Amino acid sequence: MAKDVCVIGECRTGTIPRVSLEVASEGRRLAENLGVGLVAVLTGYNIASQAAVLGNYGVDRVYVLDSQELEHYVPEMYSTAIGDLIKSFEPSAILFPASPDGKDLAARLSMRLDSELVQDCVEIRCEDGTVQARKPIYAGKCFAWYEWDLPEIPLISCRPNVMECELFDGGKEAEIITVPVLPLPGRSKVISFETDNSGGIPLSGAEIIVSGGRGMKDGGNFHILETLAQVLGAAVGASRAAVDAGWRPYADQVGQTGKVVNPNVYIAVGISGAIQHFAGMGTSKYIVAINKDPDAPIFSKADYGVVEDLFQFIPALTEEIRKLKSSTS
Amino acid sequence: MKIAVAIKQVPDTESTIRISEDGKSIATQGIKWIINPYDEFAVEAALRLKEQHGGSVTIVSYGPHRVLESIRTALAMGADDAVLIGFDALDSCGRLKVARAFAAAVRQLAPDLALCGYRAVDYDMTQRGPQVAELLGWPHLPMAVSLTSDGSSVTIERGIEGGKVHMEAALPALVTVGGSHAVWRPRLPSLPGILKAKRKPVVVRKLNELGLDPADFDPSRSKPRLVRLEMAPDRKPGRIIDEGRDTAGKAAELVQMLHKEMKAI
C-alpha cells in the first residue's frame, strides 16, 4: 500500500471526464515501471457509483471522498480532505489532470505536502526509479524536462488530450474504500452556480475546434461557425480580437490569455495567426486555416490552408460535410 | 482596504526565445520584458477595489534589476508602493521556496487581500497563488473574472465547464485572477502616473528581513531538478488547397482531407 502511485480523479458532472481516465492510464504505466500499485482518490458528491470505472483503467484501489460539502471545488476544503488522506498512505508519485481545478488543487497540495509540482506535462518517463516529466514553456516554443530524486514525491499534472487513454487488459475490480469526510473548517464557499445551457461542446478536451477571428467582422456572423461546428461535432472558439470586440465571451478565447487547447483538428477561420493565438493552439495535431489574405501568418503553421472568403467558403464546407455524412450513414 | 499584489516579469511573447549554452535557461539579450498579463489584470482588480474602498495597493515582486521597470509600471497604473524581495537567485531555488518568500512578504504586510495572476505566461507553473495561500493558512478563490468586496469578505465569479460559479471568502484571503484583456481592460499608465511612480517607495527586503533563513534558500539544491530545455519542433507550412478549384471544389477537397487524412469525420 505504501509507495503506490496515486492519481487524483475528478467527477463533478456525474461522470468521470476523459482527462481523468488519461491520468489513470498514465498512472498505471508509471506504477508498472516503478513496480508498485495504483490508487485513486475520487472527490465530490454522489460519486461513489463512478469509482468502479477507474478499475477499467488499471486502478487497484479507489478512495472515495463523498460529501455535499465537496459538491463544488472549494480549494481549502479539497486540499484539507485530500491532503490528510494522502499523508496516510505515502504515495511514490501523485498525478493530477491539468484541468483548471486539477491544477489549482495540485498547487495547494504541493505546499501542504511540501513536494514540488510540475504542471501541464505532456510526457512522463521513468528510469531506474527516477521520474522525469516534460512540459511546454514560453508559449509552447520550448519544453522543459524536470527530474525528481527519490525520496522526493513527484507531483505532476497532465495536459488533457495528450496521454494515451488505455483500457487495462481484462479490466480490474478496483477495491472501493469510502473515506469518512469530517466537517471541513473553511472560510470560503460557493454561493451560487449557473449552467449556461448553451448545449455546445466544451472547448477544453474537444477533438475538433472551429475558431473565429477578426475576419468574422461581427458577432452575429458566428452563427455560420456554430452551424459548421454542429455538423462536425466541434466546439466553437474565438481569437482575442473577437473577444475584445465583444463578439464572443471570454470563456471562448483561445490563446495566451485564454484557453490552451490541444484538439485533433483546429480550424482557424478569419484568424491572422498572431503568436499569442498560436500559444493557445499550437500543439493541435492538425491546423486548418481559412483566410482570404494569402499572406496571413497562420498559413505558415497550418497543415491545410484555403485562401477564400470565409463567408462563401464556410457554408460550402458545411454543405460538403453534410453530403459526406449522409452518404456514409 | 489594504491589498498586496504579487507580480512577475516575463518575456513578451513576441520575443525570440533561444536556449542559452548551459541548456537550462534562455538567452536574455534582445528580450522585451513585460508584467505577466494575468498579474496586470490583478493590479487592475486591486486598483478598482481601492477606488471603491479607499486604502492602499502594495506591489510585491522579485528578480534582477530589470524587474524595477515592471514595478514602476504597476506604480504608474496607481499602486502606492512596492516590496522587492532582495534575493536574485530566488527563481533557482524551486517554486516552493519562491512561494515561501512571497508568503513571508505578504505576512509582513498583513493586507486584507492578496492578489496575483493565476498563471504566468513564461513557465506556466500555475502555482504561486495557491501555494502562498496554503502556507498563510488563508482561503484562496481561483481564476476570478470578477471581484468585489464589502470590506469583510471577497466575492468572485469564475467560469467552469458549462457554467459559472460565485464564490465568497472571509478576509483575509487570496484571489488568483483569470479571464482576459476583454474582461479586465487593465488601465494604461497616464503620464502624470508615470511621473508620480518615480517617487513612490520601493523597499528591498532581504530574506532575513522577511523572517526567513537564507540557508534554506540554496539554488544548488533546487527541486525538482531542471534537466534541460529543448526547442519545440517548428511546424512547417502544409498544403494550400487550390489546384484550380473553385470554392465548392476546395470545400470538397478539404472534406476529403478531414475524412481520410485527419480522420475527423
Task: Describe the fold and architecture.
The complex is a heterodimer of chains A (329) and B (265). Chain A folds into two domains: 5-178, HUPs (Rossmann fold, 3-Layer(aba) Sandwich), CATH 3.40.50; 208-328, 3-Layer(aba) Sandwich (Rossmann fold). In chain A, 26% of the residues lie in helices and 27% in strands. Chain A is built from seven helices and 16 strands. In chain A, a hairpin with a 4-residue loop joins strand 7 (130-137) and strand 8. Chain A starts with a strand and ends with a helix. The model of chain A has no long low-confidence stretch (mean pLDDT 93). Chain B is an alpha/beta fold. The longest helix of chain B is centred in the first third of the chain and has 17 residues, at 37-53. In chain B, helix 2 (67-77) links the parallel strand 4 (56-62) and strand 5 (81-85). Chain B starts with a strand and ends with a helix. Chains A and B meet through helix 2, helix 3, strand 5, strand 7 and strand 8 of A and helix 3, helix 4, strand 7, strand 9 and strand 10 of B. Strand 11 of chain A pairs antiparallel with strand 10 (163-170) of chain B.
Summarize the topology.
The complex is a heterodimer of chains A (329) and B (265).
Chain A: E1 5-10, H1 18-34, E2 38-44, E3 61-66, H2 75-89, E4 93-97, H3 100-113, E5 117-121, E6 123-127, E7 130-137, E8 142-148, E9 155-158, E10 175-178, E11 188-195, E12 208-212, H4 223-232, E13 235-238, H5 240-244, E14 265-269, H6 275-281, E15 286-291, E16 304-307, H7 310-328
Parallel strand pairs in A: 1-2, 1-4, 2-3, 3-10, 4-9, 5-9, 12-13, 12-14, 14-15, 15-16
Antiparallel strand pairs in A: 6-7, 7-8
Helix pairs in contact in A: 2-3, 4-7
Chain B: E1 2-6, E2 9-11, E3 33-35, H1 37-53, E4 56-62, H2 67-77, E5 81-85, H3 95-109, E6 113-117, H4 128-136, E7 140-144, E8 146-149, E9 153-160, E10 163-170, E11 173-177, H5 181-184, H6 191-197, E12 202-205, E13 225-231, E14 239-240, H7 247-261
Parallel strand pairs in B: 1-4, 1-6, 4-5, 5-12, 6-11, 7-11
Antiparallel strand pairs in B: 2-3, 8-9, 9-10
Helix pairs in contact in B: 2-6, 3-4
